[in-house]
Specification:
This protein is of the alpha+beta class and 238 residues long. It has one domain: Aminopeptidase (3-Layer(aba) Sandwich). 32% of the residues lie in helices and 27% in strands. It is built from 6 helices and 8 strands. β1 and β2 form a beta hairpin. The longest helix has 18 residues. The protein starts with a strand and ends in an 18-residue tail after the last helix.
């Protein structure tokens, strides 16, 4: 099992063990998909969603004391487009025409509503960023959100809206395309990560400290970023 373990704040004051890993096995992908469908159904978005697989798709699964609490998939445009192209192709093509541009998106994001910790959410996003910058060379990151969540992504992560609100037929709900330059993410992490600013609405102060980020990069270099092995890989433990 490929993972990174560290302590994170618990729901009732105790410290719980958070594990973030790539969902490489069928069991992990099923667990991630089950969480997506439970959370999407709870929000009225249906319960028959499938997490994409194949080249350019990396699904992450976050577990708290062995229970799945979050998942997100990083998808890279490798010539066959992104999920957001279904309704935002014209908007995405504007960015594709930028010299040197390489597009990616975050999709199938679900986080257990009973887990209130912003620190856990920040840790998940940061590890996805570490993986993405190490494994890919994308320049522009996109995400589709319900317009009522737009302020969250603006304030928490710095995303900017692109184009008009449209209808996403897959979830039968309005959708807003949002965008962020990968270089800006790196800058925000460098400036704010590990500062734990109590009054900040941004998630970046809750990202891993520079020391912890170096530890993640170093300890996961031979495991998380390596091609899948023929057998189960050992967990990486503190």
């Amino acid at each position: 099992m490929l993972s990174k373990r560290f302590e994170a704040p618990g729901r009732i004051g105790e410290n719980n063990l958070l594990e973030v890993k790539l969902a490489r096995s069928e069991a992990d992908r099923d667990e991630a998909c089950g969480l997506v469908n439970r959370m999407y159904d709870w929000r009225g978005y249906g319960h028959d969603h499938v997490i994409p697989q194949g080249d350019g798709h990396s699904t992450f699964l976050a577990s708290l004391d062995k229970a799945a609490v979050g998942t997100i998939t990083l998808a890279v445009d490798m010539g066959d487009g992104l999920a957001a192209d279904a309704i935002f192709r014209d908007e995405l093509n504007i960015f594709r025409r930028i010299p040197g541009a390489s597009l990616c998106e975050l999709t199938k994001f679900a986080f257990d509503a009973d887990i209130p910790s912003r620190k856990l959410l920040a840790s998940l996003f940061h590890i996805v960023f570490i993986y993405g910058t190490r494994h890919h060379r994308c320049t522009h990151l996109f995400i589709e959100v319900n317009p009522r969540h737009r302020r969250f992504y603006e304030a928490m992560l710095g995303f900017q809206p692109v184009g008009a609100i449209k209808t996403n037929e897959c979830v039968q709900a309005p959708s807003q395309l949002m965008w962020l330059e990968v270089s800006d993410i790196a800058g925000l992490i460098s400036e704010q990560a590990g500062s734990n600013a109590a009054n900040s609405r941004s998630l970046y102060p809750l990202f891993l400290s520079r020391r912890d980020e170096r530890d993640v990069r170093s300890r996961l270099s031979d495991a998380l970023f390596a091609p899948p092995a023929s057998g189960p890989a050992p967990a990486i433990r503190n």
